[in-house]
Amino acid sequence: MSRLVVVANRVPDPREGGATAGGLAVAMKDALAKRDSLWFGWSGKTAEETGTEAAQVRHGSTTYATIDLGHDDYRHYYQGFSNAALWPVLHYRLGIARFDRRDYGGYTRTNAAFAAALAPLLRPDDTIWIHDFHLFLMAAELRRLGCRQRIGFFLHVPFPPRSVFNGLPHAAQLLEGLASMDAIGVQTEDDAENLRGALIAGGMGEAAMRVGAFAIGIDAAGFASLAARRVGSKDVVRLRDSLAGRSLAIGVDRLDYTKGLPQRIAGFGAMLERFPRHRGKITFLQVAPVSRGDVAQYRTLRRELDEGVGRINGQMAEPDWAPIRYITRAVARPTIAGFMRVARIGLVTPLRDGMNLVAKEFVAAQDPVDPGVLVLSRFAGAAVELDGALVVNPLDPDDIAEALDVAMDMPADERLDRWSRMWATVRANTAAAWCRRFLSALEGHEAVAEAGSSLEETPKRRRAKRAEA
């Protein structure tokens, strides 16, 4: 089996074996454990200039190779083009994107620097898997350096309609960079259709045939076990005792304008106003660690949330009950798993999201005897798979309010039926299955479109089975 080379903007902490790196490291865990591997990317540190030689650390079967970013490249590649331009455009927010030619210069320069630092580390038979929007151009740079290995790319965020993407300066060059890939993966078939359309319109029809939808999953059994173990932990017991018998609704998100947090807060407030019988019977816990706090838009978002939470608590609270609890610091993943286990409602309402693994983690965390209800945005990629959720339009606070009312009153048998359907999907379409499907397409064992569409269990397939029966 060839060595797997994973390339991403950030590299997990090798001292932790990738355990603290977040969603991508968790998703890649199975693939990395089963073969010799190299994980390459940015160290998270800045220096006077971007590094030219990678520092390497070996942990188990994986070598972690990193370079530092120069201060200018950090400002233009990372803060500028990646986060101020690409991030909003890919999330359909063309109107708030900021464009600067110096930022694009930093983006192209850094993609080239990544390729130049990685190329000397490659073996002829390596399989290279590049991740996410920071590195649209890297495969093309590797090809210019003479690299002929199989190169795949996976976009973890949405891909918008062609009319939106073409509003991005240098959109054509980014698509040409993607055309250098042997396999291109996105989260949903809608994303795949959008990307294929953009490539075809740009005269890259052959590359469009290499695009497939590969819905990413979680370690379902592992997260379920973690939640069950943590339900008796000190932090979870403290939370449950503090609820005093009230139901818990929970939201877990980065503090980001794509997550629909102000609309979610407004929806919860609308539920308390429109359905006053729920007052004093439910507490909403929103965990939203601050991210990109040095960006003006994120500071504005935090002020908006602070004001929204304060307004609802000020108007609705009683001496022994505050409707909303709001945490802007990080909470450990095991603790979150335990919180999800005791929650009656999971609120996952992004304005746009590639997949949203929090939705799947909420399903996995539930008590199979007495599961909670998932309220899910129709604009999250997970809505395609999780047909047992109450699906809402996150832009409509009244829609959220009505779904919360339904969730609060939902009888146990309906909750169990909805959860069972979702759990079957989450348990089948795991992170390990996602890796297998994509690598099978990348390494030439299966056509990309066929591999991407072959989810092991989907709502559509379950309905077909029931119809046949």
UniProtKB/TrEMBL annotation:
InterPro entries: Glyco_trans_20 (IPR001830). Residues 460-469 have a biased composition (Basic residues). Residues 449-469 are annotated as: Disordered. Belongs to the glycosyltransferase 20 family. PANTHER family: BCDNA.GH08860 (PTHR10788:SF106), TREHALOSE-6-PHOSPHATE SYNTHASE (PTHR10788). This is Trehalose-6-phosphate synthase.
